[in-house]
């Protein structure tokens, strides 16, 4: 019984901006199914009194003071950008997205 | 769907038949020195991409660390809104692809907000006098602001038709607190005013807390207004729209009014209201459709693995509670008492967003009534004309107090004082500089005034005779004549004295 459908894999691929061919979807659906199955074994031993773990370390409240640290220069910040213009990161047309 | 305002039913018609439900989401940019998760400066107006570092640029290997002051500010906002403060909460990753966040996710909070389940109250005017309306607070959570986009190649900087966009990440990572109300159900006629009063209240509150200047015109406070409508007498909530970019107090009221009318038009036409994002346009006073809910992103929130959970101790929470300023409602009541204003006068001051300014003006030496007169009169008119906030039109409380002082000293009369304020508002300098430059001081030189008084008496013998005979009625006409002759620059009280002196003898 597979726990992730081909449609769900296609949906995830779209969210991750991945273009996948139909045979890749089938291939990955099988692989993801195995991964989910493996992780699912945890639920067999996790009783109700064991909350889901999001953090491995049992620490809380790690803060820094509100004190300025040096920033990068604009040149350094933009040095890894494929394109820059007027001191800003240049990105391709965003198209029909709303903002 | 109707697009022109003219096609919409009138607000009065709509509120006779429908009841609105509102929900307000307000983002407040905190005034911390550094960003939420890194030590970059938050100062406004720096050159693009000069307040960035590997963390806020999302470079590989960088890790966020939480700003303690931002967390304290969030908790203080929560406490001031009578919220519970979470004993344990986590940050969450909100995943989306959009160039305003270089990481491709925003660190926010999802199902574990730092503050939740609170309330505040606002006062609005009704036909039966001021009414206090309680507003439930669903939650206040922490997140980081996004970068700023500049769209190039399209018309007027719009994203549609742009050939490409330019990103400045100075703002990316600045601490934001998002405050969400519970559904606000209030009688239809009051809804727009309640929405505005709520945002005004929040602005006052965060300013009083000292956690943000909340300058809406700088984007330090931004408002989304959710509106739905249901026919009167029914109980099921209608489908809501979420109007974005409502970034002035006046716009909040206008946008809610517009959306109530638009929903009514859709419902009247027998069509379903579409659940969608709408964009507010200040210039046309209308909203236009944005993305619909079906197209809405699937954000795949999950607990932020790079940040450990927060577990504020109850001692810490109580310590912060001890730092809260006087609650706005209590402050209003206190100031009203100190100033001797009626409920109506106080309401006008509060609704105009002028309470703090009047307070500062009084502190600077003005009498309360005089301070109120200026801020709600000349200055409010100018602010309205310019579409600006009262504290942004170019006159300070100290300058207003100075004008009042000069009136008290007899250097200015009301007419001249108005010209002085007008000059200050026009950017001509301080009150004293305007008086100097425009030559506005009152003529109090008795010799000069005396001549004008004699002329007036000679020109109006009938009036003079009556006054001599003890009929004080025509004194006003004589004073008016002198004021006219001196182009309004005379001290009217002194003129009256001089006239009576001459005619009494």
TrEMBL record, chain A:
Enzyme superclass (EC): ligase
Catalytic activity, reaction form: L-glutamyl-tRNA(Gln) + L-glutamine + ATP + H2O = L-glutaminyl-tRNA(Gln) + L-glutamate + ADP + phosphate + H(+); L-aspartyl-tRNA(Asn) + L-glutamine + ATP + H2O = L-asparaginyl-tRNA(Asn) + L-glutamate + ADP + phosphate + 2 H(+)
Gene Ontology biological process terms from the UniProt entry: glutaminyl-tRNAGln biosynthesis via transamidation; regulation of translational fidelity; translation
Known EC number: 6.3.5.-
Keyword field contains GTP-binding: no
Keyword set includes NADP: no
Residues annotated as signal peptide: none
Molecular function per GO: asparaginyl-tRNA synthase (glutamine-hydrolyzing) activity; ATP binding; glutaminyl-tRNA synthase (glutamine-hydrolyzing) activity; transferase activity
Alphabetical list of SUPFAM superfamilies matching this protein: Glu-tRNAGln amidotransferase C subunit
InterPro entries recorded: Asp/Glu-ADT_sf_sub_c, GatC
Ranges where the record places region Disordered: 78-99
Keywords, ordered alphabetically: ATP-binding, Ligase, Nucleotide-binding, Protein biosynthesis, Transferase
Family: Belongs to the GatC family.
Subunit structure: Heterotrimer of A, B and C subunits.
Job description of the protein: Allows the formation of correctly charged Asn-tRNA(Asn) or Gln-tRNA(Gln) through the transamidation of misacylated Asp-tRNA(Asn) or Glu-tRNA(Gln) in organisms which lack either or both of asparaginyl-tRNA or glutaminyl-tRNA synthetases. The reaction takes place in the presence of glutamine and ATP through an activated phospho-Asp-tRNA(Asn) or phospho-Glu-tRNA(Gln).
Protein's name according to its UniProt entry: Aspartyl/glutamyl-tRNA(Asn/Gln) amidotransferase subunit C
Gene symbol of the encoding locus: gatC
Automatic annotation (TrEMBL), chain B:
Alphabetically ordered keywords of this record: ATP-binding, Ligase, Nucleotide-binding, Protein biosynthesis, Transferase
Swiss-Prot/TrEMBL GO biological process terms: glutaminyl-tRNAGln biosynthesis via transamidation; translation
EC number: 6.3.5.-
Function: Allows the formation of correctly charged Asn-tRNA(Asn) or Gln-tRNA(Gln) through the transamidation of misacylated Asp-tRNA(Asn) or Glu-tRNA(Gln) in organisms which lack either or both of asparaginyl-tRNA or glutaminyl-tRNA synthetases. The reaction takes place in the presence of glutamine and ATP through an activated phospho-Asp-tRNA(Asn) or phospho-Glu-tRNA(Gln).
Homology family: Belongs to the GatB/GatE family. GatB subfamily.
NCBIfam families referenced in this protein's UniProt entry, alphabetically: gatB, PRK05477.1-2, PRK05477.1-3, PRK05477.1-4
Annotated protein name in UniProt: Aspartyl/glutamyl-tRNA(Asn/Gln) amidotransferase subunit B
Origin organism lineage: Bacteria, Bacillati, Actinomycetota, Actinomycetes, Jiangellales
């Amino acid at each position: 019984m597979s726990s992730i459908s081909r449609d769900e894999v296609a949906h995830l691929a779209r969210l991750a901006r991945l273009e996948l061919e139909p045979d890749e979807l089938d291939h990955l659906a099988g692989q993801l199914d195995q991964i989910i199955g493996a992780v699912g074994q945890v639920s067999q031993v996790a009783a109700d009194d064991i909350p889901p773990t999001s953090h491995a370390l049992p620490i809380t409240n790690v803060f820094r003071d509100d004190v300025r640290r040096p920033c990068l220069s604009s040149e350094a910040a933009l040095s890894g950008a494929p394109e820059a213009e007027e001191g800003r990161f240049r990105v391709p047309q965003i198209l029909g997205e709303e903002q | 769907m109707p697009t022109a305002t003219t096609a919409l039913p009138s607000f009065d018609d709509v509120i006779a038949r429908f009841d609105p439900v509102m929900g307000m989401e307000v983002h407040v940019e905190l005034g911390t020195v550094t960003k939420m998760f890194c030590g970059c400066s938050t100062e406004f107006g720096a050159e693009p991409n000069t307040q960035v570092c590997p963390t806020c640029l999302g470079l590989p290997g960088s890790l966020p660390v939480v700003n303690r002051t931002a967390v304290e500010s969030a908790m203080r906002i929560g406490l001031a809104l009578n919220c519970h403060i979470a004993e344990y909460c986590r940050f969450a990753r909100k995943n989306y692809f959009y160039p305003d966040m270089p990481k491709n996710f925003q660190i926010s909070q999802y199902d574990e907000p730092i503050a939740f389940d609170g309330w505040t109250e606002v006062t609005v005017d009704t036909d039966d006098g001021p009414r206090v309306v309680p507003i439930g607070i669903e939650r206040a959570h922490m997140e980081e602001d996004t970068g700023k986009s500049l769209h190039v190649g399209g018309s007027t900087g719009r994203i549609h038709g742009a050939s490409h966009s330019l990103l400045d990440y100075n703002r990316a990572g600045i601490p934001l607190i998002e405050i969400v109300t519970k559904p606000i159900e209030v009688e239809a006629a009051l809804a727009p005013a309640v929405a505005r009063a709520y945002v005004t209240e929040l602005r006052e509150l965060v300013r009083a807390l000292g956690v943000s200047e909340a300058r809406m015109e700088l984007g330090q406070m931004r408002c989304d207004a959710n509106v739905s409508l249901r026919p009167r007498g029914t109980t099921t909530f209608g489908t809501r729209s979420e109007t974005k970019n409502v970034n002035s107090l006046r716009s909040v009221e206008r946008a809610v009014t517009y959306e109530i009318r638009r929903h009514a038009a859709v419902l009247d036409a027998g069509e379903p209201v579409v659940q969608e994002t709408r964009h507010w346009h200040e210039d046309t006073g209308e909203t236009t459709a944005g993305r619909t809910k079906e197209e809405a992103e699937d954000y795949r929130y999950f607990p932020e693995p790079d940040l450990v959970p927060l577990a504020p101790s109850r001692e810490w929470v109580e310590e912060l509670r001890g730092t809260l300023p006087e609650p706005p409602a209590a402050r209003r009541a206190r100031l009203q008492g100190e100033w001797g204003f009626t409920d109506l006068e106080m309401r006008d001051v509060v609704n105009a967003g002028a309470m703090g300014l009047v307070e500062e003006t009084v502190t600077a030496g003005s009498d309360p009534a005089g301070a109120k007169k200026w801020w709600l009169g000349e200055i409010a008119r100018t602010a309205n004309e310019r579409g600006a906030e009262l504290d942004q039109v170019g006159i300070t409380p100290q300058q207003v107090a100075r004008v009042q002082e000069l009136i008290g000293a007899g250097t200015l009369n009301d007419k001249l004082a108005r010209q002085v304020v007008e000059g200050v508002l026009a950017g001509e300098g301080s009150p004293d500089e305007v008086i100097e430059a425009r030559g506005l001081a009152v003529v109090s030189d008795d010799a000069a005034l005396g001549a004008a008084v004699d002329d007036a008496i000679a020109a109006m013998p009938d009036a003079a005779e009556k006054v001599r005979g003890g009929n004080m009625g025509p004194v006003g006409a004589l004073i008016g004549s002198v004021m006219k002759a001196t182009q309004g620059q005379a001290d009217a009280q002194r003129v009256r004295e001089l006239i009576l002196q001459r005619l009494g003898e």
